[in-house]
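Raw record, unedited: V-type proton ATPase subunit F
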Amino acid sequence: MADKRTLLAVIGDEDTATGLLLAGIGQINPSTNEKNFFVYQEGKTTVEQVGEKFDEFTQERKDIAILLINQHVADLIRMKIDAFVDPFPAVLEIPSKDHPYDPEKDSVLKRVKKLFGE
């Protein structure tokens, strides 16, 4: 199952997505026009759009190994993030330039603490 998963995907604000695209993670399938990135724009992007893109990257796409999502964007769909327990793709919350990282909100760290009985 994991051998076909080769891509990183990102759901993030413009600065984060741009930086990761400049680093080389961008992939556009020429036949279907599927992208492995989604740019969240505050005030323009709806919570439903973020949720749909999260579902696409985690349930429909079988080529994504790791999904990076800005923590402030993940907060918009926190219930979906916390409910996602599949091993692939790994969902990692990352900080953005304007929103600091809060480890208390991170779903992965919450699961680790639960495993260790904290």
